[in-house]
Amino acid sequence: MVTPILNFESRRVPSYLKGLIDNRARADGHVHRLQVALAGVQTELDRALAQRESCDALLKSFSDNFPTDDIGAVRGWMGQHGKRGSFLEAIKQLVSGAGPGGITTSEIGSVLIGQFQLVFATPVQRGRWQRNCVTRRLNELKHSGQVEALHDHTRPANTSGRWRLKVERAASLDSLADLARSLGVEVEVEVEGDE
Length: 195
What we know:
The protein is mostly helical.
């Protein structure tokens, strides 16, 4: 067990140094955060380089004169779901076309698979894609207030959720009449029993 040192001397720091000390402490914290981030990026870079080298070795084993240097880099999203943003727009269109009854996550996934011509090797891959791509986008739309979930969040994990466009609550007749009057429209309200 380490015994703390309790006999420290308190030194008064001149005011002109306090700002400099504070800036140095902030810079030191920033350096530590960047070093941690750099270590993570370096690990990812090493892994990507090893994967690229193993792919090059396999390509060369099939054909010695295959020009691996001519293979260009591809960004992960490019072409995977069409033009950038079209995947989210397709989900919005499906939900808006479903009407008040909504549409399930698996129905959305099935339509998107056909629309974007996606191919999955196994049903497990399809399930992961649906959870990671479709459900995540639906939750983003939910948090932005564009769609609402009709399903119970305590449902079993292997069941599909149901979604619909978020509709504003209908206003009362009195509030609609007040709105019309504020816009200069003459409103006549009939109450049942008044004749």
